[in-house]
Amino acid sequence: MKTILIQLDTDSLPSTFDRVVAVDAGVDELFSYGGVNAGNVETLVHGAMFTRGVPDLKSTAIFLGGSQVADGEALLKRVKKIFFGPMRVSVMMDSNGSNTTAAAAVLAARKHVTLKGADALVLAGTGPVGQRASQLLAKEGARVRVASRSVDRARQTCDAIVAAVPGAELTPVQSTSSAELEKACEGVAVVIAAGAAGVELLSAEQVKGMSALKVAIDLNAVPPAGIAGVEVMDKAVERNGVLCYGAIGVGGTKMKIHKAALKKLFTANDLVLDTEAIYAIGSELG
Predict the structure, then answer these.
(1) What is the tens place of the pLDDT at every residue in 113-135?
(2) CB–CB of 41/52 below 8 Å?
(3) Chain centre distance of CA 42
(4) Would you say 281 and 104 are in contact if contact means Cβ atoms under 8 Å apart?
């Protein structure tokens, strides 16, 4: 029985990146559709559900992608509602690489810092990757400061994470001024910058003042760096006593997680691979 991956992309043109990764992961057949949304996805899902017998449904899976994470989340919610009883296939959501990137970043930090009880700061913590990184850090037992230009948005993100991770220790912080940011940095062992491309979130002077900092992870690949002094190729490179990771340094792990998750889809017909499930797969890789 051939494995079939059905790529449903919320953008008009299906991602070539996601298609290449699927091929490299060993998928036998890849069907790609663009412009998919919650309103038109039903017939595509039905095609996946009703063409094979229940024992063979594990050989069909769905990948949800696209550049807009909110659209991917809405699509995942709709797809799960279409399934019923044993008539379902496994599905993975990784719009804009948000889940695999966040998982890779937190796993990188975990290599060097015992996250349980550690203080961590996520810059641009209300964005798609920032939210997921904050959630995973909290799941590991870290005390997470979620930074945003809007403290209200940061608070909303913290509330949403607590709903998913009961008992999570999260603090919303505003990062519009140097004074606010410097206060947020006090005592932090891990900092992850998950902001927009080409925007510096933490200056060299601010990094220098973080005496407790052990790991700095910058997920921005476009100059200037999100964390000044971190190079895009850095992978556990020590700079002034801090282990640094750049976007490409984290990218290798992200790619391994992406491929492993795709392979995992075909082990059962009822898997839903979202943030925590994808992180668990990354953790298994070692």
Answers:
(1) 999 999 999 999 999 999 999 99
(2) no
(3) 26
(4) no
Residues 6+ apart with CB under 8 A from 241: none
pLDDT less than 70: residues of the chain:
none
One-letter amino acid for residue 98 of the chain: S
Structure tokens at 263: 């392979």
Q: Return the pLDDT at 23.
A: 98
Distance (Å, whole) CA 214 – CA 75: 38
CB-count exposure of residue 117 (10 Å: 0-12, 13-18, 19+)? exposed
CA pair distance 218, 201, nearest whole angstrom: 10
| Coil, strand or helix at 130 | helix
Whether the CB-CB separation of 157 and 146 falls below 8 Å is answered with yes
List, in order of start, the domains of the chain with CATH numbers. Answer: 4-97+253-285 (3.40.50.10280), 100-250 (3.40.50.720)
